[in-house]
Amino acid sequence: MVFIHTNSFSQAFISAVLDLESDEIISNSLELIESAYKNRDAAGGLTDAPTLSSTECVPDFNQDLSNDISVSCNGEPTCEACFEKSFEKLNFYRRQLARLRCIYNNTKSFKDAAVAFGDNTSGIHAMAGIAWQKQRATIMKTFEGTKKTYDNKSTELLSGLQTTLRELNTCMYIAGENNWYTKSGFIYFEFMQERYKRTD
To answer: pLDDT of 69-80, one tens digit each?
Structure first.
């Protein structure tokens, strides 16, 4: 059996996940990649598998959210500071959730490609087939850990998002808008919950 090093995919993947500040998802995903690459027969065709570029998984949330919310502070510094802080935190959670999902989807695509290629080529030689079955089990087990990590991290980020929306509700109250979260904020939160729920 020939052991080979991970290619530029792993390096791009490391760069993509660093900002998430989640050592567990980095560890699980890199373990998955290394497992797939240990067997040359199982990984030789993965050069066509989806990979991360240096700009992938970096969502653009530079739009000024204040343009989407019809409320005015009338120049009141306390009110303006409240909105500025809330919008900054809201953008943070939106960005991290989008990055988390992108990273997870890329990891899943890589895993699927590795497993499919290994399944298709392991029958060439009996010994290769035996080695691949062991390697396949390792890959699948590692990806189960990645799924759990995604669930835990997305729950954490969504909780932060909900807290931020409630803080935004306070800003709305200062600006003269009562019960904003009850009327609008919860709808956005439920939308985000559904959007980032893992479906596999």
So the answer is: 667 888 899 999
